Amino acid sequence: MKKNKSVFLLSFVLASIVLVSCEDSIDKVNSPIPYESIGGYDSSDDVAATHLVSKLSFDGNIADSKSGVTGGVGTNVTYGTGIKGEAYQGSSTSFIAYANVANSVINLKHISVSMWIKTNPHTGGAQSIFMLPKKTDFWGNIFTLIEGTGPATTMLMKNHIQKDVVPSIPWAGQFIEHAGANVLNNMFGAWKHIVWTYNGTNSTYSLYIDGQKLALPASISKRYASDPLTGGVGYGELANSEVSKFIIGGYQQHLGSPWGTPDGWMLNYTGLLDEFRIYDSALTDNEVTALYKLEKDKR
Protein backbone atom coordinates (compact mmCIF):
# COMPACT_ATOMS: atom_id res chain seq x y z
CA MET A 1 0.00 0.00 0.00
CA LYS A 2 2.81 2.36 0.89
CA LYS A 3 4.61 1.42 -2.32
CA ASN A 4 1.56 2.20 -4.46
CA LYS A 5 1.14 5.56 -2.70
CA SER A 6 4.78 6.45 -3.32
CA VAL A 7 4.45 5.55 -7.01
CA PHE A 8 1.32 7.69 -7.26
CA LEU A 9 3.01 10.70 -5.68
CA LEU A 10 6.05 10.34 -7.91
CA SER A 11 3.85 10.14 -11.00
CA PHE A 12 1.95 13.25 -9.90
CA VAL A 13 5.18 15.23 -9.38
CA LEU A 14 6.57 14.16 -12.76
CA ALA A 15 3.30 15.07 -14.51
CA SER A 16 3.31 18.49 -12.84
CA ILE A 17 6.91 19.12 -13.96
CA VAL A 18 6.03 18.15 -17.54
CA LEU A 19 2.93 20.38 -17.49
CA VAL A 20 4.84 23.40 -16.17
CA SER A 21 7.62 22.75 -18.65
CA CYS A 22 5.10 22.65 -21.51
CA GLU A 23 3.45 25.87 -20.33
CA ASP A 24 6.83 27.61 -20.12
CA SER A 25 7.63 26.37 -23.61
CA ILE A 26 4.32 27.65 -24.96
CA ASP A 27 4.84 31.07 -23.34
CA LYS A 28 8.27 31.34 -24.90
CA VAL A 29 7.11 30.29 -28.37
CA ASN A 30 3.80 32.18 -28.60
CA SER A 31 4.34 35.95 -28.74
CA PRO A 32 1.38 38.40 -28.69
CA ILE A 33 -0.50 38.57 -31.98
CA PRO A 34 0.20 41.99 -33.57
CA TYR A 35 -2.60 44.28 -34.69
CA GLU A 36 -3.47 44.07 -38.35
CA SER A 37 -2.45 47.26 -40.13
CA ILE A 38 -5.18 49.49 -41.51
CA GLY A 39 -4.47 51.30 -44.74
CA GLY A 40 -0.80 50.51 -44.21
CA TYR A 41 -0.69 52.04 -40.71
CA ASP A 42 -0.48 50.48 -37.25
CA SER A 43 -1.39 53.62 -35.26
CA SER A 44 -3.42 56.76 -35.86
CA ASP A 45 -0.28 58.81 -35.18
CA ASP A 46 1.43 57.08 -38.12
CA VAL A 47 -1.04 58.60 -40.59
CA ALA A 48 0.59 61.54 -42.41
CA ALA A 49 2.90 61.80 -39.40
CA THR A 50 5.24 64.37 -40.97
CA HIS A 51 2.29 66.67 -41.73
CA LEU A 52 0.66 66.63 -38.28
CA VAL A 53 1.17 70.09 -36.73
CA SER A 54 -1.32 70.07 -33.85
CA LYS A 55 -2.95 67.29 -31.82
CA LEU A 56 -5.27 67.75 -28.84
CA SER A 57 -6.38 64.48 -27.22
CA PHE A 58 -7.95 66.01 -24.06
CA ASP A 59 -6.92 63.09 -21.85
CA GLY A 60 -7.41 65.02 -18.64
CA ASN A 61 -5.49 68.03 -19.96
CA ILE A 62 -5.56 70.65 -22.73
CA ALA A 63 -1.97 70.20 -23.93
CA ASP A 64 -1.08 70.00 -27.62
CA SER A 65 1.27 67.04 -28.05
CA LYS A 66 2.66 68.51 -31.30
CA SER A 67 3.08 72.02 -29.81
CA GLY A 68 1.36 73.81 -32.66
CA VAL A 69 -0.61 75.74 -30.06
CA THR A 70 0.67 76.26 -26.52
CA GLY A 71 -0.03 78.28 -23.40
CA GLY A 72 -3.55 76.93 -23.01
CA VAL A 73 -5.83 78.35 -20.32
CA GLY A 74 -9.18 76.66 -19.82
CA THR A 75 -12.37 78.34 -18.68
CA ASN A 76 -14.83 75.97 -16.98
CA VAL A 77 -13.21 73.01 -18.73
CA THR A 78 -14.37 69.50 -17.85
CA TYR A 79 -13.85 66.09 -19.41
CA GLY A 80 -16.09 63.22 -20.43
CA THR A 81 -15.65 59.77 -21.93
CA GLY A 82 -14.04 60.09 -25.35
CA ILE A 83 -13.63 57.95 -28.42
CA LYS A 84 -10.08 57.35 -27.10
CA GLY A 85 -9.59 57.97 -23.39
CA GLU A 86 -11.16 61.24 -22.26
CA ALA A 87 -12.66 64.09 -24.29
CA TYR A 88 -13.26 67.82 -23.91
CA GLN A 89 -16.78 68.36 -22.55
CA GLY A 90 -18.09 71.69 -23.78
CA SER A 91 -20.72 73.84 -22.10
CA SER A 92 -22.40 77.19 -22.57
CA THR A 93 -19.59 78.87 -20.61
CA SER A 94 -16.51 76.79 -21.38
CA PHE A 95 -13.66 77.34 -23.85
CA ILE A 96 -9.89 77.02 -24.11
CA ALA A 97 -7.64 79.94 -25.09
CA TYR A 98 -4.14 79.16 -26.35
CA ALA A 99 -1.79 82.14 -26.15
CA ASN A 100 0.86 80.99 -28.63
CA VAL A 101 0.54 79.65 -32.17
CA ALA A 102 3.53 78.04 -33.87
CA ASN A 103 4.62 78.98 -37.38
CA SER A 104 3.71 75.46 -38.48
CA VAL A 105 0.06 76.43 -37.95
CA ILE A 106 0.27 80.10 -38.95
CA ASN A 107 1.99 79.32 -42.26
CA LEU A 108 -0.37 76.59 -43.43
CA LYS A 109 -0.68 76.48 -47.24
CA HIS A 110 -2.96 73.45 -47.25
CA ILE A 111 -4.97 72.06 -44.37
CA SER A 112 -6.81 69.06 -42.97
CA VAL A 113 -8.80 69.32 -39.74
CA SER A 114 -9.78 66.04 -38.11
CA MET A 115 -11.99 65.67 -35.04
CA TRP A 116 -14.50 63.46 -33.28
CA ILE A 117 -17.64 65.18 -32.03
CA LYS A 118 -20.66 64.01 -30.09
CA THR A 119 -23.32 66.66 -29.73
CA ASN A 120 -27.04 67.37 -29.81
CA PRO A 121 -29.22 69.92 -31.64
CA HIS A 122 -29.23 73.45 -30.25
CA THR A 123 -30.99 76.74 -30.89
CA GLY A 124 -30.15 80.41 -30.51
CA GLY A 125 -27.13 80.80 -32.76
CA ALA A 126 -23.99 79.09 -34.01
CA GLN A 127 -21.62 77.06 -31.83
CA SER A 128 -17.91 77.37 -32.58
CA ILE A 129 -15.84 74.20 -32.32
CA PHE A 130 -12.56 76.01 -32.97
CA MET A 131 -11.13 79.19 -34.44
CA LEU A 132 -7.76 80.52 -35.61
CA PRO A 133 -8.20 84.26 -34.95
CA LYS A 134 -7.17 87.26 -37.04
CA LYS A 135 -6.62 90.59 -35.29
CA THR A 136 -8.31 92.79 -37.89
CA ASP A 137 -11.04 90.47 -39.20
CA PHE A 138 -14.34 89.82 -37.50
CA TRP A 139 -14.42 86.21 -38.75
CA GLY A 140 -10.83 85.25 -38.05
CA ASN A 141 -8.69 83.10 -40.33
CA ILE A 142 -10.10 79.56 -40.04
CA PHE A 143 -12.99 78.02 -38.12
CA THR A 144 -15.69 75.36 -37.95
CA LEU A 145 -19.19 76.29 -36.76
CA ILE A 146 -22.38 74.34 -36.16
CA GLU A 147 -25.50 76.39 -36.80
CA GLY A 148 -28.49 76.05 -34.48
CA THR A 149 -31.11 73.83 -36.09
CA GLY A 150 -33.53 73.07 -33.29
CA PRO A 151 -34.74 69.52 -32.60
CA ALA A 152 -33.85 68.05 -35.99
CA THR A 153 -31.75 65.24 -37.41
CA THR A 154 -29.70 67.45 -39.73
CA MET A 155 -26.60 69.51 -39.01
CA LEU A 156 -25.83 72.84 -40.64
CA MET A 157 -22.05 73.18 -40.62
CA LYS A 158 -19.90 76.07 -41.80
CA ASN A 159 -16.16 75.97 -42.42
CA HIS A 160 -14.14 79.08 -43.19
CA ILE A 161 -10.74 79.65 -44.77
CA GLN A 162 -9.55 83.24 -45.09
CA LYS A 163 -7.65 84.80 -48.00
CA ASP A 164 -5.89 88.14 -48.09
CA VAL A 165 -8.08 89.18 -51.01
CA VAL A 166 -11.61 90.54 -51.20
CA PRO A 167 -13.91 88.75 -50.98
CA SER A 168 -12.90 85.80 -48.85
CA ILE A 169 -13.31 82.35 -50.34
CA PRO A 170 -16.96 82.57 -51.39
CA TRP A 171 -19.90 80.30 -50.73
CA ALA A 172 -22.94 81.80 -49.05
CA GLY A 173 -20.89 84.95 -48.44
CA GLN A 174 -17.64 84.05 -46.69
CA PHE A 175 -18.35 80.45 -45.82
CA ILE A 176 -18.20 76.93 -47.11
CA GLU A 177 -21.64 75.96 -45.93
CA HIS A 178 -23.20 72.52 -45.67
CA ALA A 179 -26.84 73.45 -45.87
CA GLY A 180 -29.81 72.96 -48.20
CA ALA A 181 -29.21 69.92 -50.40
CA ASN A 182 -25.80 69.47 -48.75
CA VAL A 183 -26.95 69.40 -45.13
CA LEU A 184 -25.28 66.73 -42.95
CA ASN A 185 -27.66 63.97 -41.89
CA ASN A 186 -27.69 61.78 -38.77
CA MET A 187 -24.96 63.74 -37.02
CA PHE A 188 -26.42 64.07 -33.52
CA GLY A 189 -26.38 61.90 -30.41
CA ALA A 190 -23.43 59.68 -31.37
CA TRP A 191 -19.70 59.98 -31.98
CA LYS A 192 -19.02 61.19 -35.53
CA HIS A 193 -15.62 61.54 -37.17
CA ILE A 194 -15.29 64.70 -39.27
CA VAL A 195 -12.39 65.61 -41.55
CA TRP A 196 -12.35 68.61 -43.85
CA THR A 197 -9.49 69.44 -46.15
CA TYR A 198 -8.38 72.25 -48.43
CA ASN A 199 -5.77 71.64 -51.12
CA GLY A 200 -4.16 74.95 -52.06
CA THR A 201 -2.59 73.52 -55.21
CA ASN A 202 -5.90 72.86 -56.94
CA SER A 203 -8.14 75.04 -54.74
CA THR A 204 -10.27 72.06 -53.74
CA TYR A 205 -12.27 71.51 -50.56
CA SER A 206 -13.40 68.07 -49.32
CA LEU A 207 -15.42 66.77 -46.38
CA TYR A 208 -15.40 63.27 -44.90
CA ILE A 209 -17.83 61.78 -42.36
CA ASP A 210 -16.81 58.55 -40.62
CA GLY A 211 -14.08 57.93 -43.18
CA GLN A 212 -16.33 58.42 -46.21
CA LYS A 213 -15.82 61.28 -48.64
CA LEU A 214 -18.99 63.21 -49.43
CA ALA A 215 -19.97 63.91 -53.02
CA LEU A 216 -20.06 67.72 -53.14
CA PRO A 217 -21.09 70.01 -55.99
CA ALA A 218 -18.44 72.17 -57.65
CA SER A 219 -19.99 75.22 -55.98
CA ILE A 220 -18.63 73.89 -52.69
CA SER A 221 -15.65 71.74 -53.62
CA LYS A 222 -14.02 74.14 -56.12
CA ARG A 223 -12.85 77.30 -54.38
CA TYR A 224 -12.57 79.74 -57.29
CA ALA A 225 -13.00 83.49 -57.61
CA SER A 226 -15.28 82.83 -60.58
CA ASP A 227 -16.69 79.84 -62.43
CA PRO A 228 -13.82 77.37 -63.06
CA LEU A 229 -15.66 76.15 -66.19
CA THR A 230 -15.23 79.57 -67.75
CA GLY A 231 -11.58 80.06 -66.87
CA GLY A 232 -11.96 81.14 -63.26
CA VAL A 233 -8.78 81.31 -61.21
CA GLY A 234 -8.50 79.26 -58.03
CA TYR A 235 -7.77 80.94 -54.73
CA GLY A 236 -4.62 78.91 -54.31
CA GLU A 237 -2.70 78.40 -51.10
CA LEU A 238 -3.93 79.56 -47.72
CA ALA A 239 -2.71 82.93 -46.47
CA ASN A 240 -3.33 83.19 -42.73
CA SER A 241 -2.29 86.53 -41.30
CA GLU A 242 -2.30 88.54 -38.07
CA VAL A 243 -2.74 85.36 -36.11
CA SER A 244 -3.03 85.82 -32.39
CA LYS A 245 -4.00 82.95 -30.11
CA PHE A 246 -6.12 79.91 -30.86
CA ILE A 247 -9.46 78.92 -29.35
CA ILE A 248 -11.38 75.69 -28.78
CA GLY A 249 -15.09 75.87 -28.02
CA GLY A 250 -15.59 79.58 -28.67
CA TYR A 251 -15.05 82.60 -30.94
CA GLN A 252 -12.11 84.97 -31.02
CA GLN A 253 -14.47 87.48 -29.45
CA HIS A 254 -14.41 85.36 -26.28
CA LEU A 255 -10.69 86.12 -25.95
CA GLY A 256 -11.04 89.83 -25.25
CA SER A 257 -8.71 92.47 -26.70
CA PRO A 258 -8.21 93.27 -29.54
CA TRP A 259 -11.72 91.94 -30.23
CA GLY A 260 -15.02 93.19 -28.85
CA THR A 261 -17.48 91.16 -26.80
CA PRO A 262 -19.27 88.24 -28.49
CA ASP A 263 -22.56 88.83 -30.26
CA GLY A 264 -25.58 87.08 -28.78
CA TRP A 265 -25.62 84.40 -31.49
CA MET A 266 -21.95 83.46 -30.83
CA LEU A 267 -22.35 80.31 -28.76
CA ASN A 268 -19.78 78.12 -27.04
CA TYR A 269 -19.60 74.52 -28.20
CA THR A 270 -21.60 72.35 -25.78
CA GLY A 271 -20.81 68.86 -27.09
CA LEU A 272 -17.91 66.46 -26.65
CA LEU A 273 -14.74 66.89 -28.71
CA ASP A 274 -11.90 64.38 -29.00
CA GLU A 275 -8.71 63.70 -30.98
CA PHE A 276 -8.58 67.15 -32.62
CA ARG A 277 -5.84 67.28 -35.25
CA ILE A 278 -4.52 69.80 -37.77
CA TYR A 279 -2.36 68.75 -40.72
CA ASP A 280 -0.44 70.96 -43.13
CA SER A 281 -1.60 68.90 -46.10
CA ALA A 282 -4.85 67.74 -47.66
CA LEU A 283 -5.14 64.13 -46.50
CA THR A 284 -5.84 61.47 -49.12
CA ASP A 285 -8.94 59.28 -49.09
CA ASN A 286 -6.89 56.34 -47.76
CA GLU A 287 -5.32 58.45 -45.01
CA VAL A 288 -8.71 59.71 -43.80
CA THR A 289 -10.27 56.24 -43.81
CA ALA A 290 -7.27 54.77 -41.96
CA LEU A 291 -7.34 57.59 -39.39
CA TYR A 292 -11.04 57.01 -38.74
CA LYS A 293 -10.69 53.23 -38.34
CA LEU A 294 -7.55 53.40 -36.19
CA GLU A 295 -8.94 56.01 -33.78
CA LYS A 296 -12.23 54.12 -33.55
CA ASP A 297 -10.14 51.05 -32.68
CA LYS A 298 -8.45 53.17 -29.97
CA ARG A 299 -5.14 52.94 -31.78
From TrEMBL:
InterPro entries: ConA-like_dom_sf. SUPFAM superfamilies: Concanavalin A-like lectins/glucanases. Residues 1-20 form the signal peptide. The keyword Transmembrane helix does not apply. This is LamG domain-containing protein. Keywords: Signal. GO terms for molecular function: hydrolase activity, hydrolyzing O-glycosyl compounds. Pfam families: Laminin_G_3. The keyword Mitochondrion does not apply. It comes from the Bacteria. GO terms for biological process: carbohydrate metabolic process.
